[in-house]
Amino acid sequence: MSNQNNGQTLTSLEKLNSGQVRHDWTLAEVEAIYNQPFNDLLFAAQNIHRQHFNPNQIQTSTLLSIKTGACPEDCAYCPQSGHYNTGLSKEQLMAVEEVVTKAQQAKKNGATRFCMGAAWRSPREKDLDVVLEMVRQVKDMGLETCVTLGMLTDEQAQKLAEAGLDYYNHNLDTSPEYYQQIITTRTYKNRLDTLQHVRDAGINVCSGGIIGMGEETNDRYGLLQQLANMPEHPQSVPINMLVAVEGTPLGEVEKLDSIEFVRMIATARIMMPQSYVRLSAGREDMNQETQTLCYLAGANSIFYGEKLLTTANPEAEADMQLFKRLGIQPERREMDQEELIQETPKVEEQQPAKPLFYDATKTH
Ligand code: SAM
Ligand code: DTB
Ligand code: SF4
Fold first, then answer.
1. Global pTM?
2. Where does [4Fe-4S] cluster bind (predicted)?
3. 78 alpha carbon to ligand 1 midpoint, in Å?
């Protein structure tokens, strides 16, 4: 099958791999991208990646669990759900000063974004007020801010926007079909509604999902289809590999083939060319070669620092060593340019500028 495009004949797969920004993906199209020969998939993804981003820069976000455990929701993957016994100690909402201290450490270690997560179904008003103050103070330090607090009303999203929040993380997690086997206490529609409130408030959307939960490949296509067919692509798309935690219903699930994970990253990159694609949870169980393939496939963001919310993440030092081996620079915020000049390696060690590169962060 072929299509005419600017006088050139493209096969249907070439057309799918062309990096067009679309919101009408069919499942068959996602399947065709995901299942093409691995080298073709990675070549297409890297090619698209270079049209929008510096291929040798990775954005780094540090996570902090500001309220841990005893969550009323029953997400089958989650060590923080009150429905399962995972031996996690339940904690109250942290104090603002404590959070600011953690954010200062994250900034010192080189993170550009600080993501605060709470094990809530949705925030209570008095708790939201505390989080708003955290957002203001962390932002004042020159860090980008992200929070993930569960479902939000329109008004709550507005308040977060007024406090200066940069990103709200709320994942779709999986396909609409598989979702019912993973979470029963809130619906897929609830999630889409929260994301709409976040978008309406003008906050950047961070939304992705988890693979390796025993889903079919069809469910992975379904997740990507839902994400890419939203009215706007999420500015940040976290792809998590399940961290299987003992005591959760998914504690014993079979480990995912790492090549499948890389295919997922590459397909996300091709379908959402201008979004940051984050290689998220699960890196502790991945070797450095798999992570490197994810970067080649277009992942350009990671969670950085030795802890995710409650589980382990690679040591910051190990990530920096890998970046050095790969000639990757952690992305800097514009206001950090002075620090960048001090730390940038000598000119002869750097890659020449790519003519196709432009900074997609400037477009939103
Ligand atoms: N309670 C809020 C919510 O669910 O919206 C925010 C925190 S929740 C822990 C944020 C996300 O972390 C989940 O949506 C899920 O995608 C991811 N997550 C949680 N446990 C995970 C695990 N064991 N492995 C991989 N990702 C996980
Ligand atoms: C996302 O997509 N992954 C992060 C973040 N958003 C909040 C959370 C990963 C959690 C992994 C399990 C844990 O550490 O509790
Ligand atoms: Fe609660 Fe979020 Fe964990 Fe679900 S993923 S149980 S909502 S903390």
1. 0.88
2. 71, 75, 78
3. 6
